[in-house]
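For the sake of transparency, this paper describes our internal protein records without simplification. Such a record has a labelled line for the sequence and another for the backbone structure tokens. Nothing more is needed to write down the fold, since each code stands for a local backbone conformation. For reference, a complete record is included directly beneath this paragraph.
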Amino acid sequence: MRSKNYNMNNEKKTSSLFSSSFEGGREEAIKELVKEKYAAIAEQSLTQNATSCCGATSSCCGDEVYNIMSDDYTKMEGYNADADLGLGCGLPTEFAKIKAGDTVIDLGSGAGNDAFIARNIVGENGKVLGIDFTEAMINKARTNAEKLSFNNVEFRLGDIDDMPVTSNYADVIVSNCVLNLVPNKHKVVSEIFRVLKPGAHFSISDIVLEGALPSKWKEVAELYAGCVSGAIQKQVYLEMIEAAGFKNILLQKEKEIIIPEDILNNYLSEAEIADYKKGNTKITSITVYADKPAKEERNCCEPGSECC
């Protein structure tokens, strides 16, 4: 897929740009749901996770094996099978322009898959920090790092919407299919801006939408933990990145996600499936790149302002 530049300065901003604000109780409930699901995933193998579209020990996918979102990491240098739980929807480290000696943060680092591939690039003089809010994932990643004898790969327990990291820390941030799971995505993007060094950049793979999901899906917990119903509109996603102050926004890769029939049957009636298929809904995996300006160019940095 040819890369696409996105500059939305001259486009009308949607009124829903900041509509992802959640009442505190609902936001915490969603976080607890995701944490519970991914704690279960941490105890499973890649094979087990590949048979469950919903990311946990659910039977929502029928008897077939569907790896409908994740891309193949196995040929990337630095790949470690113990760290691959099959949870991604792209290959952000492949596109992230990481260099030897860089400091890299992986958001939602899971068992360490992207972190270890990044470590292969940054070398012994670089540093890789993985952040995850699921303790079982952190423990699994640390065990994998110890097996590899890496002394410059660290995993910290924490929320990516309130990172346990000082400002202007990282040269590169990567993340693979994680922001769609976070209720307040705008806060995460603001944190990414804070933590990157001036002139640094990110490359993030995520799930986005074009058109409306069936309303029933929004109420299905399994699909939230499985990256579908937590996704937002592609245009809103890109506008959110621009509003945070990022420049040179680039779509590095796009891949449409086709939901298999037997998964649809678990959530929708025949009539609803027919309406879904003939509608304009499109579920897409995108990999997005953006730069943090080398100097502060935003005009919104009064204390308490939205974009800061």
Notes: Residues 4-11+29-291 form a domain with the Rossmann fold fold (CATH 3.40.50.150).
